[in-house]
Amino acid sequence: MKTSSAILVAAGTAAVGILCAMRLHRERIELAEKHHQQQLRLGTAALHQRLLAAIATDPEHWDIWNKGDITPEQLSTMVRVNAQVSLNHLNYELGVVSSEELHVQARSLMERPAVREFWSKTRDFRSKESGDERTQEFMAIFDREHAAAATRKPVENAAA
Q1: What are the boundaries of each domain within the chain?
Q2: Cβ burial, residue 84 (10 Å; 0-12/13-18/19+)
Q3: How many Å apart are CA 110 and CA 14, to the nearest integer?
Q4: Cβ–Cβ contacts within 10 Å for residue 131, how many?
Q5: CB pairs under 8 A, 24+ apart, for 36-42?
Q6: Tens digit of pLDDT for each residue in 44-97?
């Protein structure tokens, strides 16, 4: 092999190595950014859950958050339902549950009148604040289960 050919092979090998290293570095940066965004989302969700718990149980919060169109007890129920729906949303957003699992969870939630009422009252607002595809999928699943719940007969409690 001539010296010029050997230099060309070495340069090509070095270039491929550099490109591979750069790609690996970029993938690590993207993964770190995704992890950071998930950590931010989890931290924000934890704050949201604590706020909802305070609103649901503290009469001083009731005065602040109630628009005057429902009783404090109804507000407390709505906030508790919001906490559960928000948790389901977070789990779906982070990929903890699949769309099939979310359907099962949403169906179970929609068996409850308080959840159906909450979804009817808040669905439009939630849809306006949802921008990403995963949230739109979440909304569609909950919408389908809400609509289906309206056509199902209520399950009667055999223990009653």
Answers
A1: 37-151
A2: middle
A3: 60
A4: 7
A5: 38/94, 41/90, 41/93, 41/94, 42/90, 42/94
A6: 888 888 988 888 888 888 888 888 888 888 999 999 999 999 999 999 999 999
Please give the angle made by the CA atoms of 127, 85 and 149, to the nearest 5 degrees: 85
**What pLDDT is stored for residue 160 in this prediction?**
41
Does residue 48 contact residue 86 with C-beta atoms inside 8 Å? yes
Q: How far apart are the first and last CA of the chain?
A: 91
Buried b (16+ CB within 10 A) or exposed e, 14-27: eeeeeeeeeeeeee
Residue 17 pLDDT more than 90? no
pLDDT at 153: 64
9, pLDDT greater than 60? yes
Place of tokens 């169906």: 107
CB 85 within 8 Å of CB 116: no
* Residue from 99, 93, 82 nearest 134 by CA: 93
